[in-house]
Amino acid sequence: MPTVALAMIVRNAAVQLERCLATVRGVVDEIVIGDTGSVDETPQRARQLGARVLHVPWKDDFAEARNRVLEAVTADWVLVLDADERLDAAGREEIPALIQVAGCDGYLVTIRNYVLTLEHRLWDTPAVPNDHRLPEADPYPAYVAHENVRLFRRRPEVYFVGRVHETVGGRIVELGGQLGRARFVIHHFGLVADPETAAQKTELYRRLGRQKILERPHDAQAYFELGLVEFDNYHNDTEAVRLFEQACRLNPGLAVAWLFLGLARSRLGEHGRALEAYAQARRLGYCVPLLDEAEGDAHYNRGEFESARRCYRRALEKAPARAELLSKLGLADVRAGRPGVGLQRLREAVALRPDLPEMHDRLMQALVWLDRLEEAAEVAETKLRKVPPQPEDYLRAASIRARRGEHSRAAALVLAGLERFPRHERLRAVAAELQPDLLLVRNGPLAGS
């Protein structure tokens, strides 16, 4: 019977380690852990849990650290986990059979990255509702899945490549090895870390991504990965465009890079150039819902509402449960001259996700555009009750009431905003302009309405 080793690198993981290792008990024959500089009790705790612990100096290189651990493994197969991950219960049943398959050198494993909202995405993949397969993940509403080679046959010539976003999969393929696909999953909790930890990790990935490009200046994937960090985490769209453009030059067939080049251009207001990038992604056979939605956004922002409608409908056919798409389609319907069906879709979207501010905003925008100001005002005030309000929400609701000539009602909304955000400059400036009406609100019968 082939043997299996768990190979890990850790730092300051004493809190997480026991829960992680409990999920591989009875599955692996040895545990080799590389500690990259913990200042807590991680090394001692790992030894107590049966691991062989190596001191691995951290050199800003995930692949190097993991390869140091690989060198110490003696088992026939290697399973890779991080401390914030858990092996699925199905792995206990499946791994013993997988490692006996002749001719297979490694397995792609689905990794479930738990997230705090359904609006999260990882690269071009949207979050899906949590099916509560793992009780520890019950607090989280959704996850985003991706695949990576996490179970592979140990061979000296198989090693991790990449200072960051490291993998052995490419190396196995280069050697002519065969990859299969596992049915079990790995549960990952790294994306629900506290904000300080998440910010530190993002900055580390940014630094390592820049070093990776210096070391691999002709690697399109390296430019794409760093572009994503700049685009998603720092909203540095000009730099993201530069990095995505370089990725596309180095590998014109990298369709996902064309998609994100378009997204970054669109955020810079270059909607026509964004559509050019999307068209190139589509010519490469790319057809994810995010591409359809992005094309719809670009057409909408150019005032091409019929084209936007077609794109949103196509996206909605692929992702029918997304209230965001239904809302965008409804707004495009209204602007394209179909107010009845558009408003119906917009109201359905609000009913599906009353917790999302954008749902209320699009319905309100459509009603204002149709000059149905009383309904728009009601939506604006409903949003104040359904979603944690921002200062701009009070100002918007007050503006709609003022357009209807309801100045006392508008003043009441400004006053309510000031009570919640007493230091907000725009609210204070508007309040100064409405002093007579504010006196009426404070002293008159509307104060308690």
Structural notes for this entry:
Helix content is 54%, strand content 14%. It is of the alpha/beta class. Among the domains are: 4-193, Spore Coat Polysaccharide Biosynthesis Protein SpsA, Chain A; 389-449, no CATH class. Strands 1, 2, 3, 4, 5, 6, 9, 10 and 11 form a 9-stranded mixed sheet that branches. The chain has a two-stranded antiparallel sheet with strand order 7-8. Helix 18 (407-420) packs across helix 20 (435-443). The longest helix has 21 residues, at 195-215. The chain is elongated, with a radius of gyration of 27 Å. 41% of the residues are buried. The model is unreliable at 439-449 (pLDDT under 50).
Structural features:
20 helices, single chain, 54% helix, 9-stranded mixed beta sheet, two-stranded antiparallel sheet, alpha/beta
